[in-house]
Structure formats: C-alpha cells, structure tokens
C-alpha cells in the first residue's frame, strides 16, 4: 500500500461492478519533495512497507467508489464514524455525485458474507479544500440509511479536542492502496502498515505545504495509490486521514495525513454528531 491517491475507474453504460480489480487504473495527488536527499534525523526504511491485515481486524474500514458526472470516478478509502457517516479525504469527494461503499470487507473481489454494500447521494468535502496547497483535505459521506453494527462493521473513535501532536508515537494505517509505486494492480485484500509520527517541523524540511492541521509519518511504510481517505490510527483512535505523499510512493519520504483533531467542530457541524 502506499499515497494520497485517487484511482480512476471506468463505467460502461450502467453502474454495475464486475470484478473490482479488473476495471481500474490508478492516479493520485502528486507532491514533489523539495529535497533529493533526506536531512539528518530521518530513518532509512525497509523496502516493503506493509502486509495483509488479519481479516476484519479493522471493522471500521470502508472501501469507496465515487462517481463523477462524467461517468468515471475514484476509488478511495474511509472509516465508519457513526452508523450513518463515513470519514474520508476531501479530494476524494470533489466533483463527486454519489458513492458506493463496501463495509465489512476484506477481499473486495469476493462476495464475503460479512460484507454489505451501501449507497450515498450526499458527499460533503470541506468547503475550503484547496487542491494547490492540499489543505482542509477532509470530507464526510452521509449514507442513504443507517447501517447495522456487528462484529465485522463498527465505528472508530475520534480524538478529543485537546489531543496532542502524537510526535514519536507508533501508529497504523490501513487501506487497499498499491503495495509499491508503479504497480499495475491494487491489492484485493486489505493491507496495513505500522509507522511513526514525526514533527511537522521535520516534515516541512521535505514538503513546503505542511501545515498545523496535518500529521506526518515516516519510517517503515508510506501511503500509495488507492489509500486516499483511509484511516491513521493510534491505539483505538483515528487521528488522521490519508492525504498526500510523493509521486512515486517512496518509502524514503514522509506521508501526510489530515489531522482530525483540527476538524472536530467541522465534523460536528456537518454530521450532527457530538464529538
């Protein structure tokens, strides 16, 4: 798996989905680092950044297909934060008209008994999302109906408004993104990776656009095509949303996430939830 990514899919005529893996091409937000060689203090990561997650070990995980009015669309990740709401990246929802969401899935190419498919006609990207700066990169999908929670489908907790920076903490992100930059196919099974939060000051040495409402990680994994909108989790709390990384999903460089604690008021306003 590995970054801030949008995967383009082709729809011929009707909105039917044959085998998910067969009909998709990947594209993504591209951010060029301002340095070719990392400054001192950055780790030298392993070559492979992730592994297949244990089936249903992330029951809040959502696989999202977003339709555009042009007939094409995006694949993104997300997380269930209430029986009616899925949290994702703002760039996933811009220009979207509706979405199909898989919940309770592990292998998206198989008809698993745990999986349900739900629809949404209400996509809410942050109104101030800026594609040039990749700021305010957060959004909410309102499902057409509440989902029933169970052992395979559950909500993830969000941080408190007084949450700290998480600098130095070990965190996990998960998604169906590419296993490495340049791969032709996205994986069918959910992947996960552990990594470490670094300071924003350190991250700014690599990306000019880093702001306080973002979290950066760097270590043994990087986000990649198809991971956009997927959750970054500390313990049992989601603290970030996959936003961007380098254009080749390099493990050498940091990955950036939207910092959820910066948007709790916005989430309350747009979901009616009390956080």
The CATH C-level name is Mainly Beta
**Domain unit count:** 1
H/I helix tally: 3
Q: Which segments are poorly predicted (pLDDT under 50) over 5 or more consecutive residues? A: 2-27, 42-48
Question: CA-to-CA gap between the ends?
Answer: 30 Å
| Element-by-element helix/strand order | EEEEEEHEEEEEEHEEEEH
From the 3D structure, determine the CATH topology: Thrombin, subunit H
On the 0 to 100 scale, the average pLDDT is: 82
Structural class: mainly beta
Helix content: under 10%
Biggest sheet record:
9 strands, antiparallel
CATH superfamily (homologous) name = Trypsin-like serine proteases
Q: What is the total tally of β strands? A: 16
| Share in β-strands | 25-35%
Specify the overall morphology. Answer: globular
Task: Describe the overall structure.
The structure is a single chain. This protein has 275 residues and is mainly beta. The protein has one domain: Trypsin-like serine proteases (Thrombin, subunit H, Beta Barrel), CATH 2.40.10. Helix content is 6%, strand content 33%. The strands form 2 sheets. Strands 1, 2, 4, 5, 6, 7, 8, 9 and 10 form a 9-stranded antiparallel sheet that branches. Strand 14 and strand 15 (237-244) form a beta hairpin. Mean pLDDT is 82; it is low at 2-27 and 42-48.
